[in-house]
């Protein structure tokens, strides 16, 4: 177990650097607060991505390119839906929030998942910046919108995976294992 402590600290330090106030899930009394802080941080970032999309849509409209606003409108609506899903996720009764102690492997897994969500939000922002640079042409707009749509899909899948894992957490599981599935092409922390 002591071998996992540096790993936990690494995840926690990386998350704390990206999310002000993030304190981790070790303290049972603060788990719901930490989860809410994390989700609000992600939802606020997603909301901030709508302004550049609205600017692109306005530029397209002013430029007489009304037939090209469809993909941007789709992205704004999708971003809105995902933002609301993240901000208002309701867990109901979940053993994750009530169990006194969570084993180190599961803690590593949730820290990894939280960091992965922040990094997926970074990827969404990167695809958005590319779209802004490509929106001057119809082909660039189509390519950039498609890449951003894919990044939003990846973010949403990662969030749903985390939501399902927390919502179905079973503290009585006989063998502790990762709380979340491994990231694509990787293994969960502490499994190697």
Q: Oligomeric form of this entry?
A: single chain
CATH class: Mainly Alpha
CATH architecture: Up-down Bundle
User: Which residue ranges are poorly predicted, with pLDDT under 50 across at least 5 consecutive positions?
Assistant: 1-6, 187-192
How many separate domains make up the residues? 1
Number of strands: 0
Structural class category: mainly alpha
Mean pLDDT across all amino acids: 78
- Cα(first) to Cα(last) distance is 14 Å
User: Whole-number radius of gyration?
Assistant: 19 Å
Q: How many H/I helices?
A: 7
Largest sheet features: none
Silhouette: elongated
Helix % is 55-70%
Strand content: under 5%
CATH topology: I/LWEQ domain
Order of helices and strands: HHHHHHH
In short:
By secondary structure, the chain is mostly helical.
Walk me through the structure.
With 192 residues, the chain is mainly α. It has a single domain, classed as Up-down Bundle (I/LWEQ domain). Helices cover 67% and strands 0% of the residues. The protein has seven helices and no strands. It is elongated and about 60 Å long.
Which terms summarize this structure?
192 residues; disordered C terminus; mainly alpha
What secondary-structure arrangement, pairings included, does this model have?
Blueprint lengths: L3 H15 L12 H18 L1 H13 L7 H18 L7 H4 L5 H31 L3 H30 L25
């Amino acid at each position: 177990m002591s071998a996992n402590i540096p790993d936990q600290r690494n995840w926690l330090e990386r998350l704390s650097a990206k999310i002000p106030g993030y304190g981790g899930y070790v303290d049972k009394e603060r788990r719901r607060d930490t989860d809410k802080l994390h989700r609000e941080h992600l939802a606020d970032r997603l909301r901030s991505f709508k302004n550049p999309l609205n600017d692109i849509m306005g530029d397209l409209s002013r430029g007489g390119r009304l037939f090209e606003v469809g993909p941007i409108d789709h992205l704004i609506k999708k971003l809105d839906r995902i933002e609301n899903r993240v901000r208002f996720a309701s867990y109901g009764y979940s053993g994750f929030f009530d169990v006194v102690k969570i084993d180190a492997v599961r803690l590593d897994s949730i820290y990894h998942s939280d960091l992965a969500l922040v990094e997926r939000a970074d990827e969404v922002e990167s695809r958005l910046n590319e779209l802004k640079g490509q929106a001057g042409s119809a082909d660039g707009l189509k390519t950039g919108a498609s890449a951003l749509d894919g990044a939003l899909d990846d973010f949403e899948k990662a969030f749903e995976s985390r939501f399902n894992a927390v919502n179905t957490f079973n503290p009585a599981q006989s063998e502790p294992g990762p709380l979340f599935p491994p990231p694509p092409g990787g293994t969960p922390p502490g499994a190697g």
